[in-house]
Amino acid sequence: MKKLLMICGLLFSVITFANAQDGGRKMADPAERAKRNTDRLAEKLNLNEDQKTKVLAIFTDQATQMGKIREESKGDRDAMKTKVEALTADTDGKISAVLTDDQKKQYEAVKAARKEAMEKRGSGGGGNQ
Q1: Which end of the chain lies in a sparser environment, N or C, as judged by fewer CB atoms within 10 Å?
Q2: Where are the domains of the chain?
C-alpha cells in the first residue's frame, strides 16, 4: 500500500512539474501566427494571391517584432503596451495600404468586431489577467 501511494505521489509530482515548465500553454512561433492571421483575413476579406503574399509578409514582420518587444519589456507592462499599440497601428496601416476601398471597410468592421470581442472577454484593457 505504501509503495502504491508513493508511486501515485511521484507520478503526480512529475506531471505537475512538467506542466509548470511551459506555464501550461505554448506560444505559436511567429511564422505560424502570421500564417494563421493571414488565412483568417484572406477568408474574411476575400484577398487575392498578391494581397495574401503581402499581408503574410506584414504579419510575419509584426510577429517577429512582437517577440522582440516581449523580450525587451521583461515585465514592464506599461512599456510593452505602448510599443504593442504602436506596432499594431503600424501594421494596420500597412495592411490597409494593400487593400481595396471595399476591403478597407470590411477590415475596419473586422477590427471593430475583434475589439468588441476582446472587451467582452475582459482582456481588452490589459488589466489584471
Answers
A1: N
A2: 76-120
- Tell me the three cell numbers of residue 100: 481595396
Could you report the per-residue pLDDT of 51-73, keeping only the tens digit for each? 999 999 999 999 999 888 888 88
Which residues make Cβ contacts (< 8 Å) with residue 46, sequence separation at least 6?
103
Residue 122 Ramachandran class (φ > 0 left, ψ -120 to 50 alpha, else beta): left
**Who's near 47: CB < 8 A, 6+ residues apart?**
41, 55, 103
Cα–Cα distance for residue pair 16/6, rounded to 1 Å? 15
pTM of the model: 0.70
> Any idea how long the chain is?
129
